[in-house]
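Co-fold these.
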Amino acid sequence: MSRIERDVVVIGAGASGLTAATELAKAGLSVAVLEARDRVGGRLWTDDIDGATLEIGGQWVSPDQDALIGTLEELGLETYSRYRDGINIYLGANGERRTFEGDIFPVAPSTEKVIVELIERMDALVAEIDPERPWAHPRAKELDEISFRRWLETQTDDEEARKNIGMFIAGAMLTKPAHAFSALQALLMAASAGSFSNLVDADFILDKRVKGGLQQVPLLLAERLGDDVHLNAPVRTLRWDETGVTAVADGVEVRARFAILAVPPVLISRISYEPPLPRRQQQLHQHLSMGFVIKVHAVYETPFWRDLGYSGTAFSPYELVHEAYDNSYHGDPRGTLVGFVSDEAADGVFALSPEERRARILESLSHYYGEQALTPVVYYESDWGSEEWTRGAYAASFDMGGLARYGADLRKPVGPIHFSCSDMAGKGYQHVDGAIRVGRETAAGIVSALVAA
Ligand code: FDA
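Predicted complex below.
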């Protein structure tokens, strides 16, 4: 067991922890980053699977994500646009296949009218929400007591409109069923992206990708930190008092003035605290849980859908794969589709054998793109639910009533222990942008505490 002393120990080498460590080092403080896995990046993981470069975790960058864009520029990373030329596909209730351009799905005119009205209503409500303090909205408690599904039912009788609006936040973002989170949590999700219209706009929210993969961000940040990043070092125990902390990890123990817990909130309680965390934290961490989604990658000899005039963008609230896109990797002449199977649908296919699951998922893709979708040359399912150091995807959200009740305390430091994670962000919530934003803010908080001391 090696024993070292630093100003700050950062637990978790994801985008958030590594950003915090980088900012602290820039401010002249010494740091040690302890990472449980044998790699850095956490939910950012770019890997070669059977000869194809795949983004197993996060990948897209949207134009409002200025914290992430700033980091990409600082690290000299280049971006490229997601392929999106051509027409999009929508599958209706009876599997009826329709094509469309723009954002609004080709539904019956009466349903389209309701969808447009709902988007406007959501935008108006979202404009009232400060993503940094959603609990401060005058109706926060009331909006946190009603599930998003129920709230949508109070807005319209049109089921297809509800399913589509619900899908943008439930299946596509929080990756939980719309009955499992509140209307306030849904509004935070939209506010974190600037507006509900932004979330609905795939060309906005899924705009750019990074050449070499988004894991380049944590990899390059870690490279600059050098030997201060310790892999295979899961922190098991954190001893703390007002004078500082001792983080005990496998093979290494770090004594520091401050700790930053840069892990998903669901993993905070996996560490033993001596003394235990205060009552409030022990309670509030139980009210956050990870969403659950399978990100499916299917690589084909050619991007055959482009020849048919399709952009690759496809949606259906009635399909196993509720959304799919052209995800061809920069410079690879082959074509890649990425599709998502969310929450209860993901539970359903994980009850099947791997072969049956693959067949069901590819069949769903074929409903959009035709028979050619059934025979990829590479097929891979990102399964974050079985990753011990993540336990779901994309991120954590509160249960019903949890955001109004506990949100304000989520990032409040406990003595020398600070918290940093995308799942605790306001702007950029659940995204790499939020991870970086919170990382910077947490580091700045520690620097000013040290200046004040
Ligand atoms: P993250 O979870 O990445 O890092 C925490 C680190 O702590 C991990 O490395 C973990 O191993 C470590 N750890 C945990 N417990 C520990 C312990 N006890 N001791 C030491 N280390 C410990 N975002 C986006 O902007 N665009 C996108 O397109 C997507 N898409 C997407 C797809 C999929 C499939 C996933 C899973 C996620 C996304 N996201 C995304 C979300 C994005 O990837 C995510 O919000 C951030 O990468 C989270 O970064 P953090 O550093 O906050 O946590």
